[in-house]
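ok new one. same drill as before - structure tokens go in, u give me an amino acid for every spot. 178 of them this time. try not to just spam alanines like last time pls lmao
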């Protein structure tokens, strides 16, 4: 007999007892009502637990699918790198000891330009090499460009357009004096 059957049995027993409208009958009726509410609450919790379990299993399945997809992408990327002859060492950190790389605009040894305008900057916090194109610095709508490390969110490169223009003006002014 399930819990609902037992509750129905208790209610039937109370109705079958010869207690008429006594205080004991009222007490037993209240106890049975509280038990009935507790049974409903436990039943609701069981249903919610089942729903949560199904949801967790669904998330786990989706996560497994995503992991498989990432493995496929990683394998495909390895194949593309192999076909193109790209080596992971091509993207390694540079060997510069310059600690003031943050404001150098790519003029120090730590920042390397390649033929395509790619800038590599080593993060001062975690050592991660961050790569970006110099075209990102040419946006006319933005005065300051900050490049963040994807690993630790530290600022690895700052370019201020006004400062750069002021420096260009000073250089032009100095040339006019001579």
């Amino acid at each position: 007999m399930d819990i609902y059957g037992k509750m129905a049995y208790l209610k039937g027993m109370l109705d079958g007892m010869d207690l008429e409208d006594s205080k004991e009958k009222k007490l037993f009726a209240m106890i049975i009502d509280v038990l009935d509410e507790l049974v409903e609450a436990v039943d609701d919790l069981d249903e919610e637990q089942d729903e949560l379990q199904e949801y967790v299993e669904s998330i786990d399945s989706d996560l497994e699918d995503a992991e498989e997809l990432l493995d496929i992408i990683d394998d495909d990327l390895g194949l593309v790198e192999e076909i193109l002859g790209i080596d992971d060492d091509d993207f390694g950190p540079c060997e510069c000891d310059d600690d003031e790389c943050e404001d150098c605009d790519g003029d120090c040894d730590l920042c390397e330009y390649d033929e395509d305008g790619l800038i590599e900057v080593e993060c001062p916090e975690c050592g991660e090499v961050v790569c970006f194109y110099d075209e990102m610095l040419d946006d006319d709508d933005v005065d300051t460009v900050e490049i963040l490390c994807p690993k630790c969110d530290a600022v690895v490169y700052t370019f201020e357009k006004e400062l750069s223009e002021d420096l260009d003006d000073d250089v032009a002014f100095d040339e006019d004096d001579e």
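The longest strand covers residues 155-160. and btw The first helix runs from residue 3 to 16.
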